[in-house]
Amino acid sequence: MKTLYLALKYLAIALWSAFVVFPFLWALTTSFKSANGVTGGATWIPWVQYEPSLQGWQSLFGGVGGINVVKPFYNSLVVTLSASVISITLGTLAAYALSRFTFRFLWMRNSDITFFFISQRIMPPIVLAIPFFLMLRSLGLLDSLPGLILVYVALLMPIAVWVMVDFFNGVPRGLDEMAWMDGCNPIITFWRVILPNALPGLVVAGMFCIIFGWNDFFFAFTLTFTETQLLPVAIVSLNSSVTPWWSLSAAALVSIAPLVVLAFVVERFLSKGGLAGAVR
Amino acid sequence: MYRQKYLFLLPGLLVLVAIILFPLLFTIRVSFSSWDVYNPGLNWIGGENYGRLWEDARYWQALGRLTLLSVTTVLIQYVLGFALALMVWRDLAARRLFRVLFLIPMMTTPVVMSVLWRTIFHESLGPLNPILESLGIGAAPWLSSAGWAFAAVVMVEVWQWTPFMFLLLLAGLLSLPNEPYLAAKIDGAGPVRTFFSVTFPMLGAISVGAILIRLIEASKIMETVYVLTSGGPGTSTETSSYYIYIRGMRDFQIGYSAALSLTYLIIMIVALTVIAKLLVRALVKDAA
Known about the structure:
The structure holds two protein chains of two kinds. Chain A folds into two domains: 2-58, no CATH class; 70-243 and 258-271, MetI-like fold, CATH 1.10.3720. Chain A is built from 13 helices and no strands. Chain A has helices spanning 2-30, 35-39, 55-58, 70-100, 110-119, 125-139, 145-170, 174-181, 186-197, 199-215, 218-223, 231-236, 245-271. Chain A is globular, with a radius of gyration of 24 Å. Chain B is mostly helical. Helix content of chain B is 73%, strand content 0%. Chain B is globular. Classes of the chains: A mainly alpha, B mainly alpha.
């Protein structure tokens, strides 16, 4: 009975692991194929089943049938990091205020304001796409990095507020009150006392912002043309019926790699219990 | 009591209001106009767009399909995510390695993965059909028949987002206190009994949160559909967002698509609120 249960458990884990790894292995092997290797059918083992070539990886820097990923990679990096830093700065300040002070605007209280921030995640991108397009056009920011950063701030700030409000609610108020009694005003209290203690929350918020920023496609797709293509847009532009699968696979792996590293960071937090508060 | 409190709240609040409020008000106004390629601009045609929407069968079909797709994928993700979280919770060799592995899909860019999945589903050159054939199941017309295309979208969504459920539920499991398990052991409860009377109830709140977040995200689905099937074959995998995209960004019927997206937004908010209330009542013990 016990052995059967264990066998089933390991079988289930093995099956799911295979399912998880499958697309990555396929992309890896395809990235070393040439046109002949691709049209030869679904093969997996280089040298044995197909003649490997570096064509796909070389095309990452331009060349026939590929895309130069250097500039899109740089654009994605700039937009994601800038928008994350701005969102976390503004979001952390707002979250601290919502967690420590009481506000009343008309009928809205703290919980309503918090909900207003978080509820922005419900908004389907398609509802915002056309107004954003017209708004950025009238500001002259269409197809530019600042324009995209502006839009991504709206996209990411709700996440930062969500994580940080929860985090600050878990930080004992006594900490603030002690500093106030020592004569610190709220700004100094926040800067000297609260912020240094908020590092774990900031890391979680930063992680989520980077994941959602780096992985967004729709706004980058509708609000840029050619000048400031982000990485996902550049890769999808390769997605046609005559797609060079080798370039596609190599580019896809390059775009995914930076965030796969984050899985290790998340797991560290998870196993140490650091996420328990942040994901409530 | 401190005036500085506004210094903390207002920058973020004002930026968000400025970026979100204009598009929303603008969309409401545009939905009462006939803005399109031929007549760009804000005229007033009353509720005409809303009348047209009411009779637009394709819109309501897309909404029905979206509902089916969201509910199916989120349920599968929840069940699988819970099962996986339980398996790597404790008593497993190399469990931290498997935790990392199971988290990886949610870190990858959905649209990039969809491009890769499209090559996997390719009927003659992709690797999936040969594998199915060697298992004796037989090849399937993945992206060219309505039912299979829908299944393909479900499969990609499950691959991508089960890790999210897994993450939240595992975080919940790891934060559970030990005492109830000791009590269950003393009472002689078996593993199944322990799960249903101890583990599951204690994860009620986290389950509701995880399911709701995924439902919200799933209700917006369009990128996977755009890359994988372009809504096809026919309109068999077209979701609401994608249909609105076609009307707005491709046919450039700005006025009509604004009416479509507002209706969609309102239906989503109402539906998700109701679902949230029901889920809390069903799964969270304290609220009863």
